[in-house]
Each structure stands twice: as C-alpha cells, then as structure tokens.
Amino acid sequence: MALVAVAYFMTNRPMCQNSRKSTIDFQAVPQLHQIQIQFAPREDRILLRIKTTDKSEFRFWMTRRYVKLLWPVVVKMLEADQQIQLQENQAAKSAVLSFQHEKALQKGDFSTQFSEDSSNLPLGETPILLAKIQLKRRNDGGNLLCMHPEKGEGIDLGLNEVLLHSFSKLLADAVSVSAWDIDLKISSEITGEETTPNRMN
C-alpha cells in the first residue's frame, strides 16, 4: 500500500541536527509525491520508501526498537492539534482525535501503486538504518519530523494534518503484519480505546 501525496515539504538536509539552520527555501526543495511503508519479513524490519516530485527515491530501514520510539512522537504530533487541546477531559480528546483521523484519511489516496522507477537514489540503493528521531516546529508553524541514522544523512518531513494521519496509518498497517507484538493505535495513547481507521480510496 502506498500513499500518494503532493504539496508536502521534504528534504534530506540535516535541518534538525543544526539549530542554526532553522530556515530553508521551500521553493528550492522537492515536494513529496509518494510514501510506501511495508514490513520486510526476511530482514524483520519496516521499509520506508519516499518518492519526490523530481522522481528521487529515499529508502530507510526501521527496526522494532525504532518504531517503538517513533510512534509516541507521531502521536504527540497528532495530539498537538488545537481542537484536541481545547477538550477538558481525556475521553473528549480521544473522540476528537478519532474523528480527525477518519476525516483526514478520507482525503488520502491509498489505491495508486508506488512508482518503481528508481533511477535517482540520492542516498543509495541500500536502505539507510534509522536511529534518531527529533520533532521540530517550522517557522510557518508546521511540524518537522526528522529521522536520521547514527551517522550520515537522513530525512526531514514537513507533515500537514492529512499527511500526518496518513503516515500513522501506513506505519500501523505495516506493523500489524509483523510478529513484533506491537499494537499501534491512535486513541489508545489517550484512553486505551481501540479505533479502526477507514480504508482510503
């Protein structure tokens, strides 16, 4: 399953690793076009593939340990929504988050096949093993999810609401077919209640 998304900032420049470089020319970097997140049984890892509008592809490995670190960060980004923060109790916050999740997923395209044209691989053909996570706020108020290896280049993703919810669904779906004994839920982080996201067309 792949997510087709446009108008979504991404860069492999180490913005999050250097606080002095807090701005970037958004017109000078490619926009994200597709994301694919799949479980690879032989490697027992999650393969994250990101394709941009200039037909570049970035490949990354996520281990079980990394996903367990990443998921709370993703949920934190989801919960930062103003409408959720305005709710007075946890049950109300969970209900709003679940509603936003279903609504956002309705705007994604999960049916288009991931493009296998991989002629341009800026970080190489072999996936990069991710090890570090950092969450940063962009100057325009948006979220910047920074995922990097121990050394070398990683990727920084600017996620709007729709793409953040879609990313969380792809990750949860990939983990669900693994044998990792991890149950990634959106609202469970707040109330312990399970919600099932709608399938996107």
- Which structural category fits the helices and strands? alpha+beta
Q: Which strand order does the major sheet show?
A: 1-3-4-5-6
Total domains: 1
Report the mean per-residue pLDDT as an integer.
Answer: 76
The proportion of residues forming helix, as a percent range, comes to 25-40%
Rough outline: globular
Parts with pLDDT < 50 across at least 5 consecutive residues = 3-9, 18-28, 188-201
Q: What order do the helices and strands follow? A: EEEEEHHHEEEEH
The strand count comes to 9
Straight-line N-to-C gap: 11 Å
Largest beta-sheet characterization: 5 strands, mixed
Cα radius of gyration in angstroms: 16 Å
Q: β content, as a range?
A: 15-25%
**How many helices in DSSP terms?**
4
Relevant terms:
201 residues, alpha+beta, five-stranded mixed sheet, four-stranded antiparallel sheet, 4 helices, 9 strands, globular, disordered N terminus
Explain what this protein looks like in three dimensions:
It is globular, with a radius of gyration of 16 Å. The longest helix has 16 residues. With 201 residues, the chain is an alpha+beta fold. The protein contains four helices and nine strands, in the order βββββαααββββα. Helix 1 runs antiparallel to helix 4 and helix 3 packs across helix 4. It has one domain. A hairpin with a 4-residue loop joins strand 4 and strand 5.
Secondary structure blueprint with pairings:
Layout: E1 2-4, E2 10-11, E3 32-40, E4 45-52, E5 57-62, H1 64-79, H2 82-85, H3 90-105, E6 128-129, E7 132-137, E8 143-148, E9 155-159, H4 161-176
Parallel strand pairs: 5-6
Antiparallel strand pairs: 1-3, 2-9, 3-4, 4-5, 7-8, 8-9
Helix pairs in contact: 1-4, 3-4
